Amino acid sequence: MSNDPSDAGAPSGGLREAKKRETRRLISDHATRLFMEQGFERTTIAEIADAARVAKKTVTNYFARKEDLALDHQEEFVAGLARAVAARGPGESAVAALRRAFLAAVEAQDAVAGFAGAPFTRMIADSPTLTVCLRGLHDRREEALATALAEATGAAPGDITPRTAAAVLAAVHRVLFQRIQDLTLAGKDNAAIAAVVAEEAERAFDLVEPALAGYAVRAAP
What is d(CA 21, CA 30) in angstroms, rounded to the nearest whole number? Predict the structure, then answer.
């Protein structure tokens, strides 16, 4: 422990933030368990609060909507494609960067890419509310990608090109995400799914590569 007076208050602040993260994770974990056991629609906020041993108000303070309890990596999902474009290397096009990022996510069997396991995937598939929410997240991800592409290419306001490219590239990701979901619900394990989807992703990106190979290429330094 530091004796420097300038450090006064830092530990308590750090502990408070750590406690908040712990509480959020605890609530989310109990909510996910109950959703998978009982179904999303049938589980109440009061039941989640009881399971987590917190007040109902605490749950709603951390999660504004019930859907947020089930899909608690929303911002990571929405921003993922835009971040991949922003991180593309010199001489790399947007489609090449997105292909590389997706294949890395498949290799890692990343839950955000869809490798969430059968109980969680079934929970979403069985819930009309979560199905609609997921569709909205795909839409938001496409919009974020369009913004990133516009910035990357210096497109003029109202230029349809970034939105068109984003629609095409986001569609590839929607198809592949759904493919992972379908294979999961068919009883395949993550390793088997990754092997199938990695090959199918190459074919999917090959279809759009000719049209977008020269689009949003980062200039070499």
Answer: 14
